[in-house]
Amino acid sequence: MTRLFHGLSNPLWRCWFVSLILFLSAVSANAHEVRPAYLSVVEKSPGEFSVLFKTPMQGDARLALSALFSGKIEHLTAVVSRQTSDAMVQTWRMRTAEPLSGQNIVIDGLTNSMTDALVHVVLANGNTWTTRLTPSEPSALIPAAQSSARVFTVYMRHGIEHIAFGFDHLLFVTALMLIVRDWRKLVKAVTAFTAAHSITLTCATLGWVKLPSAPVETMIAISIVLVAAEVVRMERGQRSLTITSPWIVAFAFGLLHGFGFAGALVELGLPQDDIPLALLAFNVGVELGQLAFITVLLTAVYSARHVVMVPRQAIVGSAYAIGVVAAFWSVQRLDAMFPQF
To answer: Which of 69, 201, 303, 321 is positioned for an S-S bond with 258, CB 3.0–4.6 A?
Structure first.
């Protein structure tokens, strides 16, 4: 460790390393914290609807959100609430005096939050509508029908946002890039990671394979610790399967990360009549976000190398920083799994 800080004697790299530590510390408690609300309105018979409204929770606190319609609404049943690990799910049945298409829907309280709301409406005639409401645009007009392109766009944007704020997935990719320095091997490793998590994302979302989310999230954190450790081993001149054939490890851990992506997609909610399209769009969004992150990171490193020589200790320091944050996540998630211990 002394050699590490001695190698960072250059003020520029010392400032960079401290900034990295501060950034990782800031995000260490925020992996997968960006969760949208979800509203499903399904017309079971003419004018009568089954409603499901899922709002995120942080501990015992629920976001103060409610769904309002511009037309006259009559509740046929009381609102039934049940709490999951990180959301409040409310269900009820209602009747509308006027057709739902043509009405405005607003998520009351959204403007005072930092989350979005995904709204999915299914009409008795088979027409569907999906949209994304935001704090700046908390309401929308329900049309009579919607194109598949709109569904694709909505879920693709959620895929991009999920990877952009999925700090544990981004840290894994960063650690992988610290190992793979050759661009051909990097393409091979990233392709293997993409193919693997696409497989498990599809299988888990369609219900073919199921794994509990808590152990999956814990193992994702541990996978980052293991890859960060391999970076340090490589800088010491040691050899391993991860160092010589990183695509194999990327594929293996990619299968695990795919279950994490699937958990986010299932939690978000899927339009039952457009599941394959929504799944494809979400996956495309994840890949676009991942490629954008890799491009930005490579551009930053390339630019830095034209200004100053990157010391070996900076790479080792980055691996230590990533490993420490991932280890914190691992302990945190293990504690959540086994609170009695």
So the answer is: 201
**The pTM is what?**
0.70
| Domain carrying residue 75 | 37-146
Its sign, for the CA torsion 311, 317, 323, 328, is negative
Rounded Cα distance between 235 and 19, Å, is 22
What is the rounded distance in angstroms from the CA atom of residue 282 to the CA atom of residue 167? 17
- At 123-162, the pLDDT tens digits run 888 777 888 898 999 999 988 766 778 788 888 988 888 8
Residue 209 φ then ψ, to 5°? -135, 135
Task: Kindly give, in sequence order, each residue whose CB lies less than 8 Å from that of residue 323, ignoring residues fewer than 6 positions away.
Answer: 224, 225, 228, 229, 232
Please report the pLDDT score of residue 127 as a whole number: 78
Same domain, 46 and 12: no
- Domain end call among 80, 112, 146: 146
